[in-house]
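User: Here's a structure from my thesis project, written as structure tokens. My advisor, Dr. K., wants to see whether a designed sequence matches the one we expressed. Can you design one independently, without my sequence as a hint?
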């Protein structure tokens, strides 16, 4: 293997874009988190039911620079 292949290897990004989904209604939005952090769980206002709801990370969408 050539030294240039090692030097030109693409580095992994620090942040990733993830899809968050409501546990109650299924409402979805995207947010950014660090790659090495645990999966996100947060409370946020759900416009479908007009109340606060628990959102869980459902899927990783893509990496960001």
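Assistant: Designed independently from the structure alone:
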């Amino acid at each position: 293997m050539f030294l240039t292949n090692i030097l030109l290897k693409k580095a992994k990004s620090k942040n990733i874009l993830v899809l968050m989904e409501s546990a109650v209604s299924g409402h979805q939005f995207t947010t950014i988190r660090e790659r090495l952090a645990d999966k996100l769980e947060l409370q946020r206002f759900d416009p479908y039911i007009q109340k606060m709801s628990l959102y869980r990370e459902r899927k990783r969408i893509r990496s960001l620079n």
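When you compare it with your expressed construct, this may help: Strands lie at 15-22, 28-34, 41-46, 51-64.
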